[in-house]
Amino acid sequence: MTYFTKDKPYNTLNEYNKIRYNSKVSKIALNGGFTCPNKDGKVGIGGCTYCSRLGSGDFAGDIKLSFHDQYYQIKQIIDKKWKNTKYMPYLQANSNTYDKVENLEKIYNEILEIDPNNTVGLAIATRADCIDKDIVNLLKKINEKKDVIIELGLQTSNEKTANIINRCMTNKCFIDAVNMLHEANIFIVVHIINGLPYENEEDMLNTIHFLNKLPINSIKFHSLLILKNTKMYEQYIKNPFHILTEDEYIDIVCKQICILRDDIIIERLQADSSFLDLVEPLWTRRKLAVMDKIDMYLRNNNLYQGIYYKK
Ligand code: SF4
Predict the structure, then answer these.
(1) pLDDT on residue 55
(2) Is 280 helix (H, G, I), strand (E, B) or coil?
(3) What is the CATH number of the domain that holds 45?
(4) Domain-embedded: residue 8
(5) What is the mean pLDDT of the chain?
(6) Hey, which of 38, 50, 192, 273 would you mutate to test ligand 1's pocket, going by the most ligand atoms within 8 Å of its Cβ?
């Protein structure tokens, strides 16, 4: 089954949600005050070099508020924009499976009890090295009541680049986590970044070939964002590297869509960032225009998701 539309020749999350939940679904990004093993010294110090001070959760709720209050504060904003939507609470900032299983169970259940009639599930962003057998068993248990979506950061399949960005996680660890989650019937979303330091087109296409071989359900494409107060910003100032232009980004994403397996849902084509912290690339501020250009390029060239996919 595909979730293409007339204007978007690829599986869109909107179409998938309409069929799965019979509704539009809006994410509500919550902040659970988690940290990350790549920051606190368990596997690394300082975190991934591009990570923002808010743990790549710049649009999540206010940590000073309870989950209940964060949820309703953000819901109020969404309701002004969209009518007749259901909601997906989303634990976004840092690594949201990085705690004891009993604490996680309490947190996940608390969130799912806030607005049970209007929420369709719980999305949880985390790292592959924060997934183990006990966590998977917990997620499986919750998934039997409400959909659980796990969002894993891979960013690149090139382990040399992974070292440069201080990812502190091997591809093997990522593959193991994906397989464990898949066996437990958990919906898996993978985040990738285009334009990482010194990567070329072949590297970025290889990341898609790598993912095509894994049982993932969905992907989020991001352009690398250089944000103030990050390690990457310091490195970029000292040793500038090539930043993708808007045209280069559109070209690479279109090529990636063409080789992407045709059952994978595309949840995002471009990163969001806080305008205040963004240093480069400035064209990413025009997110909707970039998305439109990607759609137009695909349509005008009769291209679609998976057209050049090879097993
Ligand atoms: S894994 Fe995520 S939260 Fe942790 S340092 Fe990297 S980007 Fe930041």
Answers:
(1) 60
(2) strand
(3) 3.20.20.70
(4) no
(5) 95
(6) 38
- Token representation of residue 51: 């990570």
State which residues form the domain around 210.
13-300
156 assigned to some structural domain: yes
Residue among 39, 52, 91, 173 to mutate when testing ligand 1 (max atoms within 8 A of CB): 39
Of the candidates 210, 279, 226, 291, the one whose C-alpha atom is nearest the C-alpha of residue 253 is 291
Distance 79 CA to ligand 1 centre (A): 30
Structure tokens belonging to residue 11: 């599986």
Tens digits of residue pLDDT in 42-71: 999 999 999 987 666 566 778 889 999 999
Instruction: Kindly state whether residue 4 falls inside one of the protein's structural domains.
Output: no
Task: Tell me, using a 6 A CB cutoff, whether residue 153 lines ligand 1.
Answer: yes
Q: Is 51 in the pocket of ligand 1 (CB under 6 A)?
A: yes
Q: What atom of ligand 1 comes closest to residue 50's alpha carbon?
A: 7
Question: Looking at ligand 1, which atom is closest to the CA of residue 167?
Answer: 6
- pTM surpassing 0.85? yes
Tell me if 61 CB under 6 Å of ligand 1.
no
Distance 58 CA to ligand 1 centre (A): 12
CB contact at 8 A, 294 and 303: no
- CA torsion, points 92, 94, 95, 101, in degrees to nearest 10? -80
pLDDT in tens, 135-189: 999 999 999 999 999 999 999 999 999 999 999 999 999 999 999 999 999 999 9
Indicate the SS3 state at residue 151: strand
SS3 232: helix
Q: What is the pLDDT of residue 311?
A: 86
**How many structural domains compose the chain?**
1
Question: How far out from the chain centre does Cα 207 lie?
Answer: 15
Binding site membership of 157 for ligand 1 (Cβ less than 6 Å): no
The pLDDT score that the predictor gives to residue 232 is 96
Examine residue 3 and state whether it is found in any structural domain, yes or no: no
